[in-house]
Amino acid sequence: MAYNNNFKINLIVRVILIFCTCMLLIDLFYGESYSLTKVLVAGLLVYEIYVLIKYLDKTNKELAGFLNSIKYDDFTHTYTTKKTGTSMDALYHQFNNVIKKFREIRAEKEAQHQYLRTIVQHVGIGIITFDKTGEIQIINSTAKSLLGVDLIKNVKQLKSVSKELVDSLMELKTGGRDLMKIEKKGEDVQLAIYAIELMRRDEEFKLISIQNIKSELEEKEMDAWQNLIRVLTHEIMNSVTPISSLAATVESELESQINSKDFKIENISKDDLEDFHMALHTIHKRSEGLIKFVSDFRNLTRIPIPNHEDLLICDLIRPILSLLRFDIEQNEINVNLNIEPEHLMIRADKEQVEQVLINLIKNAIQAMGENEELDKPKEISICTVVESDERILVKIKDNGTGIDEEALKKVFIPFFTTKKSGSGIGLSLSKQIMRKHNGNISVQSVVNEGTEFTLTFPR
Question: What CATH class has 123-212?
């Protein structure tokens, strides 16, 4: 404000002086004055105009220089106030105040930037940001450690680590995720990659987070193996124990007969022969069961690659309901089928998906058929849900007795079953089939309310 007042006063005084000089020069031209006086007054006018222009030009240059400092973020310059009593002192003082404020703002901004950068560098998840060309803006130490790199300016330089990794980083969209296995120092590293696309000052860039999930996978794998071994041991022992016991009994009986001094074949009674026959028959049946068990286990590892084709969901489910009509009617079950839209399609292997649907619908029928204590109408509902353009869900729900929480955790483990008669193969096989279709199968259940299985298919 002081500068504005001084500037105005200075400018008004100079303009008044020029005006007065002009009037004096005009008066001299029309009066009887000496030529030298006229020249001196004219020279004075020119000088006053020059001084005014220089004064305005100096102010403009100072303003331009100050604005350039702001434009190029250069706040190192300081204006000297000479205490001349002129308006320039006030102008320089204001310039210095503004520059000081900008310095404080920049220092705060740099401190904030450094604070966030320190957090990013020390976070336990790898973080990379880069633009559309792959030019890296930020890569933290965790990401460098996970990828085994040091100095890197563009994500395309990661081709030396894995070409598939580079392709994944460049192609992933917002919300996209991928699992990538790379080799580092002779060891396999399993990475989980997540992406999000952002905008900054009209510039697109991508934020990638990378996490090593090898230890988590190994832990889950160990849990799966332990559960599988527990079930396998249970099933095998159930078959081998009676076989071993009966074989030992028959061996002991035959040995006592053979070692007898008066042993004669005709002395073996019909009852003894019937006992031997029953024992051998039991051994035979248990052996067959064990062979079937091993055969089922082998089939779990031999699921073929799906032969994808476009399939109408209603054309998959209706024939299965017709196939199982006798069981449905015998158990007095009401089936509600709701496929919307009617012509909803998935891309899948027809035979494999039919096998999954048969398993789930038969499980629902058997779950309610085995429990005669249900005091409510038995119902199975089959419906579809379309989630945007990414996923199609097929839900199969019954209102039976449900599955308790402990058993619910194990339903997809091979050979685990909650049914009175069942191999425990169906749900495990269904899980593998859905994975081969890049989909998923999940289950929710509430005791005494029912169970719902959900099949997720990509579009």
Answer: alpha beta
Q: Which residue has the tokens 């976070």?
A: 123
CATH number belonging to domain 309-458: 3.30.565.10
Please tell me whether the peptide bond between 341 and the residue prior to it is cis, using omega within 30 degrees of 0.
yes
342 alpha carbon, distance to own chain's centre: 32
* ∠ CA 324-329-331, rounded to 5°: 100
Contacts of residue 446, Cβ cutoff 8 Å, sequence gap at least 6 = 402
| CA 128/CA 144 separation, integer angstroms | 9
d(CA 272, CA 367): 43
Amino acid at 147: L
> What is the separation of C-alpha 289 from the centre of its chain, rounded to a whole number of angstroms?
44
- Residue 129 bridge partners (DSSP): 138, 207
CA distance 139 to 334: 58
Nearest C-alpha neighbor of 284 from the set 253, 321, 312, 250: 250
Selected residue with higher pLDDT from 67 and 210? 210
Rounded-to-integer distance, Cα 44 and Cα 47, Å: 5
The rounded distance, in Å, linking the Cα atoms of 100 and 89 is 16
Encode pLDDT of 159-176 as tens digits.
888 888 888 888 888 878
Helix (H, G, I), strand (E, B) or coil at 201: coil
Higher-confidence residue of 324 and 218: namely 324
Collapsing DSSP to helix, strand or coil, 32 comes out as coil
Nearest of 237, 201, 256, 229 to residue 414 by alpha carbon: 229
DSSP bridge pairs for 335: 380
* Own/partner pairs, 26-33, CB within 8 angstroms, 24+ separation: none
